[in-house]
Design goal:
The chain is of the alpha/beta class. The protein contains nine helices and 14 strands. α4 packs parallel to α5 and α7 packs across α9. The relative contact order is 0.17. Bound molecules: flavin mononucleotide.
Amino acid sequence: MTPDIRVTIAGTEFVNPIWTASGCCGYGEELANVFPLSKLGALVTKSITQKPRMGHRPPRTAETASGMLNAIGLANVGIDAFISDKIPWLEQQPTKIIVNVAGSSIQEYVNVSARLADSPRVDMIELNISCPNVDKGGIEFGVDPVMTEKCVSEVRRVFKRPIIAKLGPNVTDITQIAKAAEAGGADALAIMNSAFGTSVNIDTWRPRLTNNRGGLTGPAIKPMALLMVDVVYRSGVKLPIIGIGGIATWQDVVEFMLFGATAVQVGTQLFVEPDAPVKIAAGLKAYMKTKKLATVADLVGKVQRW
Ligand SMILES: Cc1cc2nc3c(=O)[nH]c(=O)nc-3n(C[C@H](O)[C@H](O)[C@H](O)COP(=O)(O)O)c2cc1C
């Protein structure tokens, strides 16, 4: 019996549960030179805003023990250029396309999402309401349940296909934000964005990012992300969860699924090993065969608690 690693989220079927994470493979063109995108469950784009953004001055990434810090500052081409220059290529790709949307006001999220609603090949949008790296419009929509619900529900009115709300760990109680996203009409939750962090060069006494602080990602944050998935999965929120944070191997994916993730995204590991998603999908299939599991659903939320 060949294990079935297809997953269905909000009525959309994915060939496997391994997706890319926003900001870690641009708009996908470079990744398509590494492996056929048909092997990917879904491609999630860089965050798109209404106007083009240059982002912060370099250095805007720094390596840390077991991870990296970044403060890119949402550098992106803006919705007009995204639609004219990026969408035509994305439309040809043999994978699901999820466009990540960011904004500095709810109206900006609505405007960008409304433009994407006109492109039928955009299978879903992911609302980045948890970016820790910009002064305005990063995180404030994802730390206050009232703002979260308002943002999701306003976007819901203009975008009729599935909406994923991407939550971050920089909150007191992530379940309140998850419940607000559900109340606003989200179809799925992506958990989690990067954690706050910083680092300083001890020769120059300058922070290693020009933004002075940034978001921590990579293996260092995996235990935090697992716990966030776990608490939301058990909170009574019914939405499927897409787990993100430090995933580098198929073993990491199994951990996320046992704690309740239906799918996952691979971010920082793409900088180390761009074909990681392909290896991870193969490893997951082999594991399921060994364990005699028929479908991915046989793993989701099956952790045996003490
Ligand atoms: C360089 C870099 C840029 C990122 N840009 C975005 C972004 O534009 N939008 C977003 O929602 N998340 C962004 N993220 C966060 C990732 O999508 C992901 O949530 C985070 O890196 C945790 O996953 P990882 O540990 O597998 O990298 C970025 C992460 C990195 C490392």
